[in-house]
C-alpha cells in the first residue's frame, strides 16, 4: 500500500484517528513511507439502517423511497437523506441502492425503476432480488442532478478539524462536477493552513465527465470512481471514458487513479479472470494507481487483494510499451518545449540510450520527479526529496515529508526523504543524496556493479542531466 484513504462518508473522527495512529505505528515498523488521503463524503445519498438488520427486497415488489429519515428502513420503505429527491426524479428513472452500488454483485445491491412520485415519496418497482446488509447503504440515481453542494458542511468540518490537525497529504473530492468545486476546496484548505495538501478530483458522474478537461486543469490528480460511473454510464461506454480520461491525465502529467477493480475479492480469495485482465489493461493504458475500496474495507481477504493486484500491475508493467507513451507525450507537448519539459524528457531519453538501471532526481517540491515520470521511463525514478527550510514569521520548519509522500501517487517514482542536514550541507548535499539513493537502489536489488544511473539535478538556474557509472568507487 502506498496511500491510505480515510473515507469520511463512514464513521467519525475518533475512529479515523485511531486508524491513523495504527498506520503511523505500521509505517515505523516496516520503515516505509505511506501517504494519507482524506476522502470527502460529498453530496452522497445515504440510507441509514440504524438497527443493522438485513433488508430483503424481492424482484417485482414495490418499495417507497421517502425523505422522512425518522422511519426505519424495511422492504417496504427506504428513507433517504435528501429532501429534494422526489422533485429531481421522474417516471422511468433508475435508482440504485446498496453497499456495493450494483457492481454486478446483485445479491448485495438493488436497482429500481421509478413508477410515480407523490409529495416527498417515490414509488419504485424492484428489478432484482437482493439483501441489503450493513448500517449504511449508498443510493445513486442515474444521470440525475442532485442539487447539493459538492463540498458539504460535513466535509468542511472533517477537513478543518481532522484534516488540518493531521496535515493530510491528499484530499479526494467526491462527486466533482465542475472546476469551481476544485477551486472552492483549494481556497478552503488554504484558509485552514493546508498549503501543501494536494487535491484529487473524484469524477464519478456524467456531469463530471462533461467538465473533465477543466477539472483536470485545476486538480492535482484524478480518481475515476467507476462504481458510480458504471451506473451513470451504459456498461459499454465505461471503458471508452476510462481510456480517454487516463490518456488526458498522462498527456499533462497528472496522476490518474481508478477504483473498483477486484470487487469479487470481498468474499473470494482470487479475482475473476475478467477483473485480473481489467487491472492489467488499466496499467497498459497508463493509470498511475489502483484504489481498493470494499476489498479492503469490508473484504475477507484485504492483504491478498493488495498482493494480487500488485502482482498483476507488476506483470503488466513488464510488457508496457513505454516508448510509445514517450512518443505520444512528446508529440502532445510539441515544440518549442519549455526548459523544464526539455530536460525532463532528455533525462528519460538518456536513460534509454545508455540502458540505465534507474534515474535519480533531486527535488524539493516534487515537480521535477513528476515531470520525469510523465515521460514514462522504463526504469524506476528515485526522487531524493531535499527538505526546505521555511518560516511563517513565528517559527522555522522543514518541509519535504509531505512532498515525498505525495510522490507515492505517481507511477514509477520511489521517493526518499533526505535528512535536514543534507539540505543544509551546501555543495555536498547532492553527493550525499545520491549515495543514499544508490544504496537504497542496491538494497532493493535494482542496482548491480557496472550499472549506469542517470542523475537529474538543478545547479543554480540551470538543470543538469549526467550519467554515473556504478564502478566509480565514490558511489559504491
UniProtKB/TrEMBL annotation:
Enzyme Commission no: 2.7.1.40
Entry keywords, A to Z: ATP-binding, Glycolysis, Kinase, Magnesium, Metal-binding, Nucleotide-binding, Pyruvate, Transferase
Keyword Repeat: no
Domain Pyruvate kinase C-terminal: from-to ranges: 341-460
Pathway where this protein functions: Carbohydrate degradation; glycolysis; pyruvate from D-glyceraldehyde 3-phosphate: step 5/5
Record flagged with keyword Cell membrane: no
Listed cofactors: K(+)
Catalyzed chemical reaction(s): pyruvate + ATP = phosphoenolpyruvate + ADP + H(+)
InterPro entries: Pyr_Knase (IPR001697), Pyrv/PenolPyrv_kinase-like_dom (IPR015813), Pyrv_kinase-like_dom_sf (IPR040442), Pyrv_Knase-like_insert_dom_sf (IPR011037), Pyrv_Knase_brl (IPR015793), Pyrv_Knase_C (IPR015795), Pyrv_Knase_C_sf (IPR036918), Pyrv_Knase_insert_dom_sf (IPR015806)
Molecular function (Gene Ontology), one example: ATP binding
Domain Pyruvate kinase barrel: 1-306
Homology family: Belongs to the pyruvate kinase family.
Protein name as it appears in the record: Pyruvate kinase
Organism in which the protein naturally occurs: Actinidia rufa
